[in-house]
Inverse folding.
């Protein structure tokens, strides 16, 4: 969601429409001034001739020949960094830019920015809530499964304790096996996730834009660590419970 938000915000364009007859040197100076700001991601100068060619391509006909002149004006397209892309900041920047004498007007879609920010926040909350619910369900299922597995070996645990084995000695093999199971389960989950992402990339190639290898690597490592931790800690608690029980309590 964060990558999607960043991508969308950094592709919102602030169009600076330049006055007819503005000198190229003044336009270049304004563009250089904009590029020097740390909140500007990039700028792109679009001459009226290039704008006419692009519009002709989109329309499928030469409107310049039809009208007899080119009604378009040159523009500087400004792309802002995601952290700066909100209406309050852009309004302040807009007023500052419009003080330049070569600028006719500054245009941007304020409603789009509000919609993007609102929708991204909603999506983030939904994804976070869904992830928390799945995590709780997963932990509950894993914990119950492990408790059942340890329950079936409660007499073995108590027998080892009765012949003099220490609690740590008894816990160790159970925890190691649980950690191995957690490792295997996490690898299976990673394979499923990679398969899902491969399929998603084939169906929606644009999703590659949102991919961040560093964050993806952190997710994979976290899956392994969490898988081992949950199974190990659940096993530790389950085994410790039967170590504390008296022999006659095992039959209850």
């Amino acid at each position: 969601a964060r990558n999607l938000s960043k991508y969308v915000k950094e592709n919102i364009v602030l169009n600076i429409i330049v006055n007819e007859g503005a000198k190229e040197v003044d336009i270049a100076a304004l563009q250089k001034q904009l590029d020097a700001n740390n909140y500007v991601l990039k700028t792109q100068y679009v001459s009226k001739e290039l704008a006419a060619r692009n519009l002709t391509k989109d329309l499928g006909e030469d409107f310049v020949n039809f009208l007899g002149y080119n009604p378009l004006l040159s523009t500087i397209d400004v792309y802002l960094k995601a952290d700066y892309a909100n209406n309050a900041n852009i309004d302040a920047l807009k007023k500052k830019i419009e003080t330049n004498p070569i600028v006719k007007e500054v245009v941007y879609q304020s409603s789009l920015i509000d919609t993007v920010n609102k929708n991204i926040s909603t999506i983030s909350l939904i994804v976070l809530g869904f992830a928390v619910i799945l995590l709780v369900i997963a932990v509950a299922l894993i914990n119950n499964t492990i408790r059942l597995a340890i329950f079936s070996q409660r007499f073995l645990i108590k027998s080892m304790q009765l012949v003099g084995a220490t609690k740590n000695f008894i816990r160790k093999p159970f925890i190691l096996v649980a950690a191995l199971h957690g490792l295997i389960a996490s690898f299976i989950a990673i394979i499923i996730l990679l398969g899902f992402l491969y399929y998603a990339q084939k169906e929606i190639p644009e999703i590659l834009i949102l991919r961040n290898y560093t964050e993806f690597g952190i997710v994979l490592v976290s899956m392994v660590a969490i898988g081992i931790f949950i199974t190990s800690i659940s096993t530790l608690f389950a085994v410790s419970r039967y170590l504390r029980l008296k022999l006659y309590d095992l039959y209850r």
